[in-house]
Amino acid sequence: MSSSSESKIYFFFKTPATLRNRTRLKTFIEAIFKKEKRELQSLNYIFCTDKELLKINRQYLHHDFYTDIISFELSAKGLPVEGEIYISIDRVKDNARLLGEPYYKELHRVIFHGALHLCGYRDKSKAEITEMRKRESKYLNKYF
Q1: Which of these, 89, 91, 115, 141, has the minimum number of CB atoms within 10 Å of its CB?
Q2: Is the pTM of this model over 0.90?
Q3: Does domain 9-143 match CATH 3.40.390.30?
């Protein structure tokens, strides 16, 4: 059993990624779950390449395209959230360039996006996408 001061958020780097203030970021992500009224057990962020994320996308979701993020909720419904979030650093860098956003801001948007998925937010319909973007912006503004 972990102590209350131990983080429930873990970062793993299969590819290098610049991610500053990791302790502050972990605390902030935990606060997102509290704000969204979801109990968090543990959450792993795995930063990888396009190639690695495409393989996961094909294998588990049967999608044959690049994406910036894939979120997996591993806990049963009604239990505290346990999850894994895979993020392609290649996609984040390309999307930042395309959107004219700084890399660090786009990376954090995607990190918060994954947490929001595990809090129950979806992004399939136009209305869901609008709500997701609103929440991403809210948390980005609070963090920065």
Answers
A1: 141
A2: yes
A3: yes
